[in-house]
Write a structure and sequence with these properties.
Layout: H1 3-50
Length: 62
């Protein structure tokens, strides 16, 4: 058993694990923001479907 090689392999494995965890955290944050944006868009579209006449007509007097 070669201890220096094992130490290097273990260190490399730990680094890859930390990088993977950081990337997963970032992708979860991105998914959360995308979900919040979709919910906001759905709320806006629901307002139009509940009150279809609100904001669709413009009164112009000359």
């Amino acid at each position: 058993m070669n201890i220096p090689e094992l130490s290097t392999a273990l260190s490399s494995s730990r680094l890859l694990n930390q990088v993977g965890t950081a990337m997963l955290s970032k992708s979860l944050d991105d998914a959360e923001s995308a979900g919040a944006g979709m919910i906001q868009m759905m709320d806006r579209s629901m307002e139009l479907s509940v009150n279809p006449s609100v904001g669709s007509n413009i009164d112009v007097l000359i």
